[in-house]
Amino acid sequence: DQNISSITLDDGKVITCDLIVAEDGSGSQIRQALFPQHHGRKVLNKTVWQISLPLDVVRKDDSLRGLLDEHHNVIILAPGRSIIASPSPSQNIHDLQLIDHEHTLEQDSNPTALNERVFDLEGVKSRFSDFDAATRKVIESVESAFKWRLVEVFDLPSWSSDDGKVVILGDAAHAMTPYSGQGTAMGIEDAAALSELLANASSGSDLRLLTENYENLRRPR
């Protein structure tokens, strides 16, 4: 209820507050409640398959060294496809995102699932069969990959309610292409900017003005 700044949970519990901050993703229920006429997502003809390997395995396998740079992402480009390989030493993970920029819904074995773990990788193998031996070896070596179809969120007239008591952040406001954690990074930046504005606000501050300042600061970014 945006008029009294409260949220009713599934169990009936009501939480009241001065400001509701929602960062509930590209399928945001809060965005739908605030702007029902602008709610929705456009599913693109682009799909990412994410494969994670133990970083130690990649380091020890000379045939995979072309996919590893200890300090930077490795990006491989091809017509209609690309790969982003990202090491995460702190988690001992080497993450590969195989991106098909021409993957239509008709080509998808389960087009209604935007995000799912896929165990049948024959289509992925076929689509990337002309890539280098290291890429083909990685795909052959795993039993599954996490698939997500990319979507666009329609532009919104605002990122907050008329009274400024409800504000949306991250993909709920501006879905980002999830390459190298860009969506997460932008959500963190949004939260940091809003936190800075709130930290300098007095108890009687105009929330409408505060959320407008947040939006004016973040939209150009």
UniProtKB/TrEMBL annotation:
Keyword Oxidoreductase tagged: yes
GO molecular function: FAD binding; monooxygenase activity
The keyword Nucleotidyltransferase is assigned to this record: no
Keyword vocabulary terms for this entry: FAD, Flavoprotein, Monooxygenase, Oxidoreductase
Annotated ranges, domain FAD-binding: 12-220
Pfam families assigned to the protein according to its UniProt record, in alphabetical order: FAD_binding_3
Similarity comment text for this entry: Belongs to the paxM FAD-dependent monooxygenase family.
Protein name: FAD-binding domain-containing protein
Taxonomic placement: Eukaryota, Fungi, Dikarya, Ascomycota, Pezizomycotina
